[in-house]
Amino acid sequence: MHYLDIVKSIGIPLIWSDEPIASKGFYLPNAKMISPVGALFVQSDLSESEIENVVLHELGHKIDGDILTRLSAPQLHIINESKANRFMIHKKASEWINGFEGNYPNSLDVVVFLKWAHLPLRLYAIAEDEIKDLVTPSVGSFL
User: Fold this and answer.
1) What is the spatial distance between Cα 129 and Cα 87, in angstroms, rounded to a whole number?
2) For labelling alongside 71, which of 12, 109, 110, 131 has CA 20 to 30 A away?
3) Architecture of domain 3-135 in this structure
4) How far is CA 34 from the centre of its chain?
5) Contact yes or no for 48/68 (Cβ under 8 A)
6) Could you say which DSSP state residue 123 is in?
7) Do the Cβ atoms of 64 and 83 come closer than 8 Å?
8) What is the pTM of this model?
9) Every domain of the chain and the residues it spans
């Protein structure tokens, strides 16, 4: 699903900032004066791949994240960022893997995926986990 389709299905407003902002984008869950589901702000001078990655990351905060404040423990902020990154990588990895149409190469190279997705190498471990989960059929558990 294209990131704009996800934005539309949630009904979250996407607001473009022509002014530089502290990060490339951010999700404001308490922007109730704009929308009951908050608002997603994105810097307008980004490349299309940066916009997609930023929007998917911020959607991860909306979909999988917790509402935090500046007083929340730093560990909770780290966990929230990880959840948002995992959501973004999952969506990008699904698109990448679907492009193989079931004809996967002998080895799916995580670095090749990260370059394709325009993502930094620091996200290698999350990307590796998501790719493995997407291509490995679920076999259940004996526990």
Assistant:
1) 12
2) 12
3) Orthogonal Bundle (1.10)
4) 22
5) no
6) G
7) yes
8) 0.85
9) 3-135
